[in-house]
Amino acid sequence: MNERILEYVQSCGIPALAKRLIRLGYNRAPASRRHHLAVENGLAVHSANVTDWLLKIGPAFGCLWSRPESPYIVGMLHDLAKVETYTIDAASGEIAWRDPAMPGHGEASALLATLNCVKLTHQEMLCIIWHMGAYGLDARGLARYDAALRLYPREILATHTADMLACKVTEAD
Question: Domain holding 134: CATH number?
Answer without folding.
Answer: 1.10.3210
